Amino acid sequence: MGSTPLASLTELAGIANVSRQAVWNWSKRKADFPAAVSEGPNGPVYSVAEFTAWLEQDGKTVGGALKGSNSVATDLLTADPKSTRAVIEGLSAVKKKKLRQELMDQIRVLQELEAELDAIKQPEHIFDPSNPNYMGRFTAAALLIQPRHPLEEVEKFYGAGVYALYYKGEFAAYEKISGKETPLYTGKADPKFAHAENPTEQGDSLSRRINEHRKSIELVSGQGGISLEDFEVRYLVTASGFQVTAENFLISYFKPIWNKETKICFGIGKHGDDANTRKNKKSPWDTLHPGRKWALASEELKTPEEIAADISDHLDAFPPIDAIDFKSLLLGEA
After folding, report:
1. Per-residue confidence in pLDDT tens, the chain, 334 aa
2. Where are the alpha helices (DSSP H) in the chain?
3. 17: burial class by Cβ within 10 Å (0-12, 13-18, 19+)?
4. Which residues contact 313 (CB under 8 A, 6 or more apart)?
5. C-alpha span between 154 and 228 (Å, rounded)
6. From CA 296, how far away is CA 164, in angstroms rounded?
């Protein structure tokens, strides 16, 4: 019985009639790309049979330029523009979407190569206060250096902004996050008027929002396995508008389990659901922490055990942190 033919990335590129860069991109970005069989003198080597089978399965032809709906970005970038447009017009919406992603991947590669050829290098980091996303990071960092306050002791104050809720108790489902720098929840409170110029004009939206959460936790204390005294909060009053990008960044950075975007234990922000008239199901938060009367009659989305398992899996995938790495946070290295 003969040995299985093996090939390097360069040789695979010849089989598919594409560039070595295209095959390298496939190996890094396609989850189902065949795994390397071994490490050769010039890099990884692959099974030719597995690669050609993968090409066919992925809709690509072997040994020639890819045609019609199977076109790859490399072929289109080197083709005559008029014929390229004709090919694209004949594609379905799904195939156009796939081709667009391939083209974007190739464009990124070309941009990287173009930058390498430039004798004058681009700066690694740019401080641009006009960039909302960049300022979202700085606003989030400003929040994270604020002291933690006992949630039960937050008084009324003027201002809009951002906040984060932390847990330090012994509730089993939160054991992995208790006492950590990863919050259970991050949120924002918008100003009373969009263009309010100072905290007084913004109203007391931030302290009011924090105290809404305090009341929800207070309602389930002693019943839902958690106690108000085990919660702390950081908060920061910001200039109007900055709270939006800061909240978006905080959710993306921490992936807090109570935020609805994470889809784990959301629902603390709900303010009342009549099970008979609105037909709403009980939020995971109310299932795990029963006690808010208006939610008691609603049907559960999941059992407490299922929610606790979801929390555990999420915290394993995104481990809570002990200390903030502000360099990576601000420079986008996390």
Report:
1. 456 788 888 888 888 877 787 788 888 888 889 999 988 777 789 999 999 888 877 666 554 434 433 445 566 655 566 666 666 776 678 878 888 888 888 888 888 888 888 888 878 777 787 887 888 999 999 999 999 999 999 999 999 999 999 999 999 999 999 999 999 999 999 999 999 999 999 999 999 999 999 999 999 987 768 999 999 999 999 999 999 999 999 999 999 999 999 999 999 987 555 544 445 688 999 999 998 887 787 788 889 999 999 999 999 999 999 999 998 888 875 4
2. 9-16, 20-29, 48-57, 73-77, 81-89, 93-117, 132-144, 199-202, 205-220, 242-254, 284-288, 304-317, 326-331
3. middle
4. none
5. 12
6. 27
CA torsion angle for 214, 216, 221, 223 (degrees, to 10)? -170
β-pairing, 161-167 vs 185-189, is: antiparallel
Whether pTM exceeds 0.70 = no
Token representation of residue 251 = 């959710």
Phi–psi pair at 38, nearest 5 degrees: -160, 180
Amino acid identity at 204: D
Is the distance from CB of 284 to CB of 232 less than 8 angstroms?
A: no
CA 300 to chain CA centroid, Å, is 26
Q: For residue 166, give both structure tokens.
A: 């932390």
Q: Are 237 and 200 in contact (CB under 8 A)?
A: no
Instruction: Give the DSSP letter string of 147-205.
Output: PPEEGGGPPP----EEEEEEE-S--GGGTTTTTSSS-SEEEEE--SSTT--SHHHH-SH
**Tokens representing residue 32 in the block:** 């189902």
Q: What are the structural domain ranges in the chain?
A: 6-117, 132-331
Residue with tokens 């933690």: 148
